[in-house]
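Protein record
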Amino acid sequence: MEWVHTKGLLIKNKHYDWFGHDYTMNLYRGCHHGCIYCDSRSSCYGIEHFDIVRGKANTEDILRRELASKRHKGVIGMGSMSDPYNHDEPDHQLTRNALKLIHQYGFGVSVATKSKLVTRDIERLAHIQTQAPVNVSLSITAADDTLSQRIERRVSPASARFQALKELSEAGIYAGVLLMPILPFITDHASNIREIISRSYEAGAKYIYPSFGMTLRENQREHYFRWLDKLYPGLKAQYIRTYGIRYGCMSTRQQQLEWVFQEECEKRGITYRMPEIIAAYKWERGPEQLELF
């Protein structure tokens, strides 16, 4: 793995509408997962050679200094740009070591990942949760393993992510699903949405947060279209006819999918509105949950 130098890791968030994150932290640049649709490839983020993962050097020393200097012990979001559980994490353990420091300094953590490797750190997440908010989101866009591995080429298949969700839930971690992105004409089918909700419920998901579409902007769009030509010949033309060069590409079935989604979640008592998700994992943990640990 290549290494890059940075002066700081924690970015203070101005808005708290995404899982109530007070800070954002990315310990890696780039990602191994090879998802054909990844927004983080967009030119605006300035990450060259996105498939090559670079670790940030001296993260323990930098993070220890930053955590010690913060007056506000908030929630740190991990996974916004690069998955914290990439293929180099088992060897270098930047994420695992960061969780130890987050617990030591009394901060909370909110993790987004596609990797089953997150279950390795259940004990550390549980320790954090005894004193601060914790939530883990497994990103799932296709319930079927064959389809998920087609569009997310080097990542844990959907079945492994559902199993990871089950293990997290059984350990008492507040965990759920990021149902996004939903790819127009590929995964935007009611049967796929129903299956994801059903399997998430069986795995103990506390919440599912959806977006019934995807983004397409410079560099991301070109990468995605190259893969469409390989995997779904002719589909690129349909995207161009439907969306042109639009940034937000919502499913043409959006309204139908929203009805299906809300009906299925409410039938099972699964939370899906962001303010309620934030409230549940930040403020409603209560003494009973703390006593579990």
User: Anything to note?
Assistant: The first strand starts at residue 2 and ends at 4. The longest helix spans residues 254-268. The domain at 2-291 is CATH 3.20.20.70 (TIM Barrel). The chain has twelve helices and twelve strands.
